[in-house]
Amino acid sequence: MLLEESESQLVLVDYQERLMPVIFEGAMVLENARRLAKIAQLLDVPVWGTEQNPSRLGGNDPELRALCARTLSKMHFSAAEEGLGEWLRPPAKPQHGGNARSLPKHLQKPQQQAPERNTVVIAGCEAHVCLMQTALDLLEDEFDVWVVTDACSSRTERNRDAAFDRLAGAGAELVTTEMVAFEWLRTCEHPDFKDMLALVK
Questions:
Q1: Tell me: the pLDDT tens digits for 136-152?
Q2: Among 31, 66, 194, 200, which residue has the fewest nearby CB atoms (within 10 Å)?
Q3: Which residues 6+ apart lie within 8 Å of 116 measured at CB?
Q4: Alpha-carbon span 143 to 120, nearest angstrom
Q5: What is the dihedral of CA 153, 118, 50, 159, to 10 degrees?
Q6: Distance CA 162, CA 167 (A)
C-alpha cells in the first residue's frame, strides 16, 4: 500500500514561532515540514496549515506559512473541530437547473467534479496534542491518515513517541519525509524527480 500523489493532501499543524524553540529536535522537524511543503507544491498536492491560538503562540514559521494555500487559526486542539474537514473535502457542487435536465441522459453534459483526495499526509507539533487529536478526528471522518514522523515532535521525546504509538494503534500509517517524496513520485523518470532530489539531499 503506497501513497498516491493524485489522492493526497498535506496538512501542517502548528509550527509556531513561540512553540518551535522548545520542541524536541525542533529545527530538524521544521526543516522536514518545509521540505514536505515544497515537494507537495512541486507535485500540485494541496498544502494546508493550522495555527493554535496565534495571538498567544505567534504565527507559523513564515516560510512554511507562505507554502500553504490557506492557514486555519484555531482554539480547539483538533483542527477538525474548527472546519479543517470542509477544506479537505469540500461540499459537492450543486446541480445547475435549466433545460439540460429535460434532455435524455446520453445528451446531458457530465458534472465536472474535482477528484476526491481522501489521503491526508499530516505532520506537526505538538505530536501528542494538536497533531494527534487532529489525526484521530480525521480517521474518524474516514480519511486515510499518514503521519510523517520526522516532521512531528513535542516538547519531550516521550510524549512524541506515545503519540506515534497511539496513532499507529488507531490505524494511521507512520512514514518519513523521504518515504512520502519517493512514493509520490514512484519513478526516477518522473519529470520532477531531479527537483525533488535536490530538496531531500
A1: 999 999 999 999 999 99
A2: 194
A3: 7, 89
A4: 7
A5: -20
A6: 9
Question: Are β-strands 8-13 and 47-52 bridged in parallel, bridged antiparallel, or unpaired?
Answer: parallel
* CA 138 remoteness from chain centre: 11
How far is 181 from 199, CA to CA, in rounded Å?
10
CA 84 vs CA 28, 72, 141, 176, 185: distances in Å: 26, 7, 11, 23, 26
Q: Which grid coordinates are listed for 32?
A: 522536514
Distance between CA 173 and CA 147 in Å, rounded? 6
Beta bridge partners, 47, equal 10
- Determine which helix (DSSP H) or strand (DSSP E) holds 125, and give its type and residue range: none
> What is residue 174's three-state secondary structure?
strand
pLDDT tens track for 69-99: 999 999 999 999 999 999 999 776 655 555 5
Cell of 13: 499543524
- 120 vs 172: CA distance, rounded Å: 10
d(CA 95, CA 91): 12
Element spanning 4, H or E: none
Q: Is the model's pLDDT at 105 over the cut of 70?
A: no
Give the HSE-up count for residue 60: Cα atoms under 13 Å, Cβ half-sphere.
26
Instruction: Quote the cell numbers at residue 77.
Output: 486542539
Between CA 8 and CA 120 the distance in angstroms is 6
